Amino acid sequence: MIALGGHALSPLGERADIHTQFRHTRDSLGAVVEFAREGWGIVIVHGNGPQVGDALDRNEMAHDRVAPLPLGVLVAATAGWIGYMIQQSLQNELHHAGVERDVLTVITQTVVDRADPALLHPTKPIGHELPPEFVERLQQRGAVVGQDGRGRWRRLAPSPTPTDVIEADAVRQLVGEGKIVVAAGGGGPPVYADERGYWEGVDAVVDKDRTAAVLGARVDADTLLILTDVDAVYRGWGTSDATPLRRLRVKEAEGLLAGDVLGVGSMRPKVEAAVTFLKRGGRHAFIAHLAAGLAATRGETGTMITGVET
Q1: What local confidence, expressed as pLDDT, does residue 71 receive?
Q2: pTM assigned to the model
Q3: SS3 category, 223
Q4: Domains of the chain
Q5: How many whole angstroms separate alpha carbon 178 and alpha carbon 38?
Q6: Edge-to-edge, what's the strand order for the sheet holding 247-249?
Q7: pLDDT, mean over the chain
Q8: Which of 19, 26, 136, 201 could form a disulfide with 72 if both were Cys (CB 3.0 to 4.6 A apart)?
Q9: Taking the mean position of all CA atoms in its chain, how far away is CA 74?
Q10: How far apart, in whole angstroms, are the C-alpha atoms of residue 115 and residue 282?
Q11: CA–CA separation, 253 and 270 (whole Å)
Q12: Count of CB atoms within 10 A of residue 75's CB?
């Protein structure tokens, strides 16, 4: 189970045109090709923070001409077109490497609790950095904006906790057939079951690492690999005393989460996802730089988190 960050495809501070995103997509898939060559069963979950924020910007700019789409629908839309980029780019890279594996994208729905308090408190930054004049305009329209962990003004979206992925059994079947599956894009559009047992969408964004942990457990994955723009989990990240943590057990990781060692940045949900995955039956979880995925699974870099019994 590979979790690929949305900023890997569209880095903050860089023009987010589609050609640039395709280039970054191609550059991000080296580790996946190596895993495929070695015969691993592979599911790729990707983020969509920059892309869904851009989609909301398009809503804003065109609101007087076309009806805006709700956030949940935009999550599904970005899952489709980012999946297309990954699927096509990976097919080309596999062909170049002489590896015969099918790649396909599945739009999956992520189950959340309709009473999750997080739905009432938007906290997850999405989109690119906002210029000051745009911040004021969005606030006047009632949109929620705030500063991310690096002090940049961005849109904020609700981010409920995932509990299941509806199409997990289908994903497991496809992986069993040797397919490489792109699933739960952007964490998957969140849904809940209403009083009749029918699925209804929610306007929110689920953290893709947390969804990867849930889906990984459901498809019986033994390894969760979270690829990001940092080479490891650090104690005291952003300080002069920053120290990489190369190997942790679940209880040690939980101790970090209980304190303020990880701060409030994007590393905390990654460690939380790793712990969730291991507690649900996974064997190993790795957090590593985008370019070092295979090396991380060999213990050469990154952070490895294991269950207590390991």
Answers
A1: 93
A2: 0.90
A3: strand
A4: 2-124+159-221 (3.40.1160.10)
A5: 12
A6: 103-105, 180-182, 43-46, 2-4, 223-228, 284-289, 303-306, 247-249
A7: 89
A8: 201
A9: 15
A10: 28
A11: 11
A12: 31
